[in-house]
């Protein structure tokens, strides 16, 4: 059976489930993002926009608002959403309405911000002090994990296009274990996004299936690194075909397909 190595259409962090995991707007109409608290207790979440840029290693680094470009500033200004804070009872979905207001004279291109859903920790109840008892000594620190999810909100203006090509492929070793790795280059004036399938020649069942692989417009190429179990890392060496296809929701057309001998 194939190993699925990436995101599904809904993403979870802590007890929050968010769907979809990617939004594309063309300015003519808005859409909705659905939040669901899959925990057993009510939870409050704050919703905001931030700028992230893709690195050549495929990661996303957060950019301080003081350092954003004019296009990134435009994305923050044109994307509208509500509400900005929600309290969700268990298993009670909440719709976040997302729209875009295109300013006059906006240049063609792809504009992107990332919507952040962050848990608001419960307030710590006050502790009554008994004057008959000695005061506590030392310092007590309570650590509360803050869970968050980000999804890209993409606005496309004008007639845009892009394609991608798969470069070298190899099995590498990361600090978390073996990974199937390859170079992915992008050309054009928008992002590319799709699924990767790795098959052995003559065998229809894929060895590896990874969904939601993107290359954003701020970079021309990135390294893709997909963690795999050691036993699969061995099977991936040798001759394989690597196929990059558009997301199935937009037709699943092939973006690139190559034969490689993986070392």
**How much helical structure, as a percent, in the residues?**
under 10%
Low-confidence runs of at least 5 consecutive residues: 1-8
Query: Span between N and C termini?
Result: 22 Å
Whole-number average pLDDT?
Answer: 88
Name the helix and strand elements from N-terminus to C-terminus, one letter apiece: EEEEEEEHEEEEEEEEEEHEE
| Gross geometry | globular
User: Class by helix and strand content?
Assistant: mainly beta
| Approximate strand percentage | over 45%
**Number of helices in the DSSP assignment:** 2
Q: What is the number of beta strands?
A: 19
The largest β sheet comes out as:
6 strands, mixed
Radius of gyration: 22 Å
Summary keywords:
6-stranded mixed beta sheet; mainly beta; globular; disordered N terminus; 263 residues; 5-stranded mixed beta sheet
Explain what you see.
22% of the residues are buried. It contains two helices and 19 strands. The chain is mainly β and 263 residues long. Mean pLDDT is 88; it is low at 1-8.
Q: Secondary structure elements and their pairing?
A:
Elements: E1 3-4, E2 11-13, E3 16-19, E4 23-25, E5 31-37, E6 43-54, E7 60-63, H1 70-78, E8 79-82, E9 85-88, E10 94-100, E11 109-120, E12 148-157, E13 162-174, E14 177-188, E15 192-199, E16 208-215, E17 221-227, H2 230-235, E18 238-246, E19 254-262
Parallel strand pairs: 1-16, 4-12
Antiparallel strand pairs: 2-3, 3-5, 5-10, 6-7, 6-9, 6-11, 8-10, 11-12, 13-14, 14-17, 15-16, 15-18, 18-19
């Amino acid at each position: 059976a194939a190993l699925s190595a990436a995101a599904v259409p809904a993403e979870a962090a802590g007890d929050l489930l968010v769907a979809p995991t990617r939004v594309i707007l063309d300015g003519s109409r808005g859409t909705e993002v659905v939040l669901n608290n899959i925990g057993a207790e009510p939870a409050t979440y704050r919703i905001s926009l931030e700028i992230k840029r893709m690195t050549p290693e495929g990661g996303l680094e957060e950019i301080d608002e003081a350092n954003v470009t004019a296009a990134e500033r435009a994305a923050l200004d044109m994307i509208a959403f509500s509400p900005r804070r929600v309290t969700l009872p268990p298993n009670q979905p909440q719709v976040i309405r997302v729209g875009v207001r295109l300013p006059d004279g906006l240049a063609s291109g792809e504009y992107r911000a990332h919507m952040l859903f962050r848990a608001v920790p419960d307030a710590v109840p006050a502790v009554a002090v008994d004057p008959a008892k000695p005061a506590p000594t030392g310092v007590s620190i309570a650590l509360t994990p803050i869970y968050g999810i980000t999804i890209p909100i993409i606005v496309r203006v004008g007639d845009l296009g892009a394609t991608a090509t798969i470069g070298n492929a190899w099995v590498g070793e990361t600090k978390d274990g073996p990974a199937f790795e390859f170079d992915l280059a992008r050309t054009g004036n928008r992002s590319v996004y799709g699924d990767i399938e790795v098959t052995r020649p003559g065998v229809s069942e894929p060895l590896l299936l990874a969904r939601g692989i993107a290359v954003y417009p701020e970079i021309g190429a990135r390294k893709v690194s997909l963690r795999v179990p050691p036993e699969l890392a061995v099977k991936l060496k040798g001759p394989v075909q690597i196929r990059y296809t558009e997301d199935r929701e937009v037709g699943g057309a092939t973006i690139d397909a190559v034969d490689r001998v993986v070392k």
